[in-house]
Predict the structure.
Amino acid sequence: MPEVKVLAVRELTAYLQRLLANDGRLANVWVKGEISNLRSPTSGHLYFSLKDQAATLRCVMFQGRSRGLSLGLRDGLEVIARGQVAIYPRDGVYQLYVAEIFPAGTGLASLALQELTARLEREGLFAADRKRPLPLLPRRVGLVTSPTGAALRDMITISRRRFPGIELILAPARVQGEVAPRQLALALELLAKRGGVDVIIIGRGGGSAEDLSAFNTELVARAIYACPVPVIAAVGHETDLTLADRVADRRAPTPSAAAEMAVPVRAELEQRLKSLAERARRGMEHRLELARARLERLTKSSGLDRPRQELYYRQQYVDGLEQRLLASWERRSREREQGLNLLAARLEAASPLAILARGYAVCRRPGGGAPLKSSREVLPGEKVEVILKEGLLRCQVEEVGG
């Protein structure tokens, strides 16, 4: 008679535990059912069962998971739960350790987005303490959006009106469709590697929830998080926050509002500089006046040991110091104002938009990409796009020369 191996209860239970733990399908499973036998002891843990017409599954949701639960659970409520299946050794039963729970009417796409949002939040991608401030006066503003959409025109118009001559750099990308997430992430990476870009606006001009799906992808969210340059998200949707909105350093309701956040008004900066100069001048005058008054009191003091003539000399010294300080401050104010005007002139001269305004044009392949620099880059019959100061021409090459 062959030898029979007899297992202890704990050995069999441990074996079954290993089987379940090694089954990847049971590590993250979605289960739909009706809640029954709901219990909520003082520990904060939730104990209940999910059942359908044929079976019942015991469930546990620990206090750390249930604390922020907005859904009011009750017996008879049909839900979808996500969690891990494992054995509870003491009772020898398998149960679902619930991580998240949603109403049964929630779609799978919505469930997946909620799960992704929760995971990225746990990783710290939305943390407020990592948000970076926007630069006061950016030299270059990067734009990640469609090259043919209204969002681009709005941002260019607003930026030029607020600070004429500021340099805008477009990294074109599709904003919806299957290739959109990849192109958006790549455009962010290219602008960051280019160097000299002080702030980036990524977005589009609104749309339905499906149209905005590219901005709810993990690829785009992580690209924004990894970008070393401050990012403004301008997805153009007032009610729902996308993952891009949550990760970005600032969120704007529209592309136009994003341009207003990124680009200061030149006249306001000049006025602010003048106000600071005036405040500093008044402060110095006040301090000098106090020093003069103190000297006058000393000259009138009967118990003064020093000769009166020396006090007169010191008063003259203070008067001369006042004149030199005021002259120095006025000179520094003029130098700062000249520096600001010079910077603005350089920005305007270097702007591609200023070059286009002088009658030049930029030729490129359809769909974006780098400008064409030589006629040898195209062949007769190929199509190209010609970007003008206002508008875009789509042309076909008939002959190549030079």
